[in-house]
Design a protein that fits this description.
Helix content is 16%, strand content 40%. It has 2 helices and 8 strands; from the N terminus they run H-H-E-E-E-E-E-E-E-E. The radius of gyration is 17 Å and the shape is globular.
Length: 129
């Protein structure tokens, strides 16, 4: 059993025994890297509850960029320019440039939600369509 699974089990056991009546909801995918088979498809990019654009992630290799990605001009200034691909990270995924440089990273919150915390305070969310 992995250390993360043991930690989740310990938290659930504590909540079960020490906090009666508390419902423990746990997302087993949070903190797990995204794999190409899961990523392929269209994702909605939003911020502050408003949709900005649609980003398409592919499962095919795209050279140094990792796996293929398409972020249209409709994404405007929400995403950095030059996105050519995506790559799994230790706790989610990152959109990358042609040379593989990480342009923006997203943490995995669930199977269908990735969040990038911005210094401006306005988080970006990628949601599965």
């Amino acid at each position: 059993m992995s250390p993360d699974n043991l930690r989740h089990l310990a938290i659930a056991a504590f909540a079960w025994t020490c906090l009666p009546g508390l419902a423990v909801a746990e997302d087993h995918e949070a903190g797990v890297p995204l794999v190409p088979a899961e990523a392929a498809g269209t994702w909605s990019l939003s911020s502050g509850g408003a949709d900005i654009c649609r980003v398409t992630l592919g499962g095919a290799k795209a050279g140094n960029a990792g796996f293929s990605a398409n972020a249209p001009a409709a994404c405007g200034e929400a995403l950095p320019p030059g996105i050519a691909g995506w790559t799994p990270t230790g706790d989610g995924m990152a959109l990358t440039a042609t040379d593989g440089k990480v342009l923006i990273a997203f943490n995995r919150w669930s199977n269908s939600l990735f969040v990038s915390h911005r210094s401006s305070g306005a988080d970006l969310q990628l949601r599965r369509q």
